[in-house]
User: Fold this.
Amino acid sequence: MNDKADLLTRLINPKEFQEPLDVSGYESSFLYETLYLMTQIRLAEEKLASEREFGTIGGPVHLSVGQEAMAVGISKNLNKKDRVFGAHRSHSHILSMNPDFHKLFAEVLGKETGFSRGMGGSMHLTDKKNGFYGSVPIVSGTVPLAVGAAFDARRSGTNNIGLAFIGDGAIEEGVVQESLNLAKILPSPTVFVVENNLFASHMNISLRQPMRSTCRFAEANKVENLLVDGNNVLEVYEKSKVLINNSRNDGTPCFIEGVTFRHYGHVDWRKDVDVGVDRSQEDIEEWMKRDPIQRLSIGMFEAAIISKQDYQNINDEISQDIISSWEKAIKDPYPTEDKLLTRVYCNED
Ligand SMILES: Cc1ncc(C[n+]2csc(CCOP(=O)(O)OP(=O)(O)O)c2C)c(N)n1
Ligand SMILES: [Mg+2]
Assistant:
């Protein structure tokens, strides 16, 4: 616990952990794919931010810009038969299982071609065939579903797992304690992933909890847990691999907490909306220096795995995809009115 407390003290100080990642020992193709996926998620969400500001998107978007290392580092240990759940800030979660940003764009525009056929919007995403079972903005609402889905996977004789992405705010909901307890006692191979971005809406964790780490909730339920630098995609990947594999093999739960930070405010395109509640402009600037994509890309430049020009080309290629996906989504049809009262249950078309 003391090691964790020391690590936490360093992790919540944005001046720490700003250095490029050490990429030695990794296959170039793995690093390239990881950087590519993180950049896809980043640029897709930046597009949502600008379209929301412009007014094209009607409903709110909760962006995870700055937090991509969590979704991507974890998803590298998952397969499409796993059962992943998210919440209100889940663009990165669904895209890390299937980076189809045309479907995301279509969904936020309410189009028939979207992830949820235009019926859900940004906060109700689903892509079951790629392992993303669903996101719901009732904070922590999907956590018990992940426990049940994981239990079912085990009972069906597979080694697939259930996984719930939750925030440091969601952990404060009673149902998460019940879910941890149940997952342990059943047992159910549920992976609880906490993206501890230090804020729930506009309030810092230090104003809400006696400790800033959430691992103590896992410890209370004797669930194996670890704390990682949530802006270091290689560390998230490596460390979560061990726990996720244990869950797969033994059918037991585990808990992974990553400390990270969102560049935008709680919702939509402004960066300064939370400023004043223990989130100063200076802090934001320091956190930008711990940017997970920058740390990986600079690590790859320094190891001569890619050049700056290569990375510019990657950005250009993804930006082109984003433009064409957005234009296509804009032209796509809305669901027809006769679908309004259907599609309520999962077996309806
Ligand atoms: C049950 C419930 N209570 C309150 C809210 C309002 N709400 C939406 S997001 C949020 C904060 C969640 O914080 P956290 O879990 O840390 O996720 P983050 O936004 O930081 O990703 C709250 C309180 C809600 N949607 N559902
Ligand atoms: Mg939070």
